[in-house]
Design brief:
Glutaredoxin, Glutathione S-transferase Yfyf (Class Pi), Chain A, domain 2, 5-stranded mixed sheet, 5 strands, globular
Length: 203
């Protein structure tokens, strides 16, 4: 398999999932500005949407959209990264994946815009803070989003939480969320992904 990624982007989520799953894969870096691969090839020929992540399966088929990709990965190994399909727990996982992608991920996006007005950014920051407070309340007494089992939803949420640092979000009043973030960051495979993407130093 091949994972098309950009360092620090939402493609970190399937990167973590692949490492946690123990599946073999190659990484292909994408320049999101030029839509070019390091080889000079046009990324739009791989994914016409022009965004990361994209996962090319061994069959050659390309899957896009992060919440779908991480489920494809989890279903290949069945090691708890996602509950069994058609189970009540699987629908709860889908609920969390949808929440992260629609309520957090999409509200973070405008905050990286160099042209968006400050008052508009304040609007989106307030929305994000409200959603993070909800997540903080749900994590009280839990190790992970689904309880005691790490799942692909945790890798996705951790990826999004990584953006709170460069954007200078104050999470000091969200003790459960901060403890959760540190807990995920301490996982060996998460550290490995961060090092491979140049987001932290090895060791």
């Amino acid at each position: 398999m091949k994972l098309y990624y950009a360092p620090g982007a939402c493609s970190l989520s399937p990167h973590i999932a692949l490492l946690e799953a123990g599946l073999p894969f190659d990484m292909v870096k994408v320049d999101l500005r030029t839509k070019k691969l390091e080889s000079g090839e046009d990324y739009l020929e791989v994914n016409p949407k022009g965004q990361v992540p994209a996962l090319q399966l061994d069959s050659g088929e390309v899957i896009t959209e992060g919440p779908v990709i991480v489920q494809v990965i989890a279903d290949k190994v069945g090691n708890g990264l996602a509950p069994a399909r058609d189970s009540a727990e699987r629908y709860k996982l889908l609920e969390w994946l949808n929440f992260v992608t629609t309520e957090l991920h999409k509200n973070f996006g405008p905050l990286f815009s160099p042209i968006l007005a400050d008052d508009a950014k304040s609007f989106f920051r307030d929305r994000v803070i409200a959603k993070l407070k909800y997540v903080d309340s749900q994590l009280a007494g839990r190790n992970f989003l689904m309880g005691d089992q790490f799942t692909v939803a945790d890798g996705y949420l951790f990826t999004i939480l990584g953006w709170t640092d460069p954007l200078k979000f104050d999470l000091s009043g969200m003790g459960s969320l901060l403890a959760y973030k540190a807990r995920i960051a301490a996982r060996p495979k998460v550290k490995e992904a961060l090092v491979k993407e140049g987001l932290m130093k090895a060791g």
